[in-house]
Amino acid sequence: MTETLRVDTSGGQLAGFRIGVTSDRRSGDLIDALERRGASVFHAPALKIAPIAEDVDLLADTAAMVEARPDLFLITTAYGMRRWFEAADAAGLGDDLLDVLGSGRIYVRGPKARGAVRAAGLDDVGISSDETTATLVDELLEQDLAGLTIGVQLHAYADAHQLERLRAAGAALLTVTPYRWIKPEGSERLPRLIEAVCAGRLDCVTFTSAPAVDALFSTAAEQGLQEELIRRFRRSVLAAAVGPVTAQPLLDAGIEPIVPERFRMGALIRLVCDHLAEHHVEQLRTRAGYVEVRGRSVRVDDVEVDLAPAQLVLFKALLSARGAVLSRDALTSLLAHTGAGHALDMNVNRLRKSLPDPHLVETVVKRGYRLHV
């Protein structure tokens, strides 16, 4: 007997879910928002932005930009724009930079970059329709760029292909990167996050920058876990990216992340909540009572059940089958990826002992196991 149940979110929409956070900047805001909604958060910053005082290239590139006085400017991020002026002001170049930007035509990648430009007392002449550098370059290429100098404010993840398109059109490019990535304090937690993904102990991992994705993959490769990490993201662990630039290295690895329509932190949080609640909550009426699995949280009626990773994998599979029989081979193949080896019967016995009613998991002789519905 099966029945569609109403999701209980009294403990928070993300109650029962464990979410990995890879960002350093603004991670506190993201973590607080997830925890307020009931999630358990594993914070493992992949990269952080280098302090301005340590970034000598930024001042040299700014001085070169001031001297060259480009005809056009591409401003890609609000944070980069603000940080650029902060560094220029500290070096006594703020007024010169403002004068140079004011003498050229400014194009912006999105509304936040436009806001930063206007906050500096400047204005732009064009904006990307979808907040991507590629679309912004498309707009520039509609005009003759031959012989022009273009100043590009990069966002720590340079899109070499888009820069090459501008050069191929005859433009001379000057670039400035107001923030660069370095390893943060707490970077030793990143290997543990990777191990947690591979062991099925996380339901979702959030990404707010493409370099963080690259850092995750390279660290996993050093651990010998990159293949298993990617397999987990493809099959069971949700990857959530704040925008298309962040999503690209995930897509390149064959991972389909969720991406909000508006590339903002708040929109990302709402999308994670909605997606996990819709796609990662299983409920079923059984002979033992109402069963609900939300991430790592298992409830049978009003009883909270604590399951080890291997037993949780088995229980989720049986619950998804909704009373149908799962073969021993199918269940054994699931255990092979949990570190539990092939001890199916032992793990089924442990699962039964953990449940309020051990008869909830039935043995079907010579076939496999099912839930007693």
TrEMBL record:
Biological process terms in GO annotation: phosphorelay signal transduction system; regulation of DNA-templated transcription; uroporphyrinogen III biosynthetic process
EC numbers for this chain: 4.2.1.75
Keywords on record: DNA-binding, Lyase
EC category name: lyase
Highest taxon of source: Bacteria
SMART domains: Trans_reg_C (SM00862)
PROSITE patterns cross-referenced by the UniProt entry: OMPR_PHOB (PS51755)
One Pfam family per UniProt: HEM4
NCBIfam families: PRK07239.1
Protein name, entry field: Uroporphyrinogen-III synthase
Organism expressing this protein natively: Arthrobacter bussei
Taxonomic path: Bacteria, Bacillati, Actinomycetota, Actinomycetes, Micrococcales
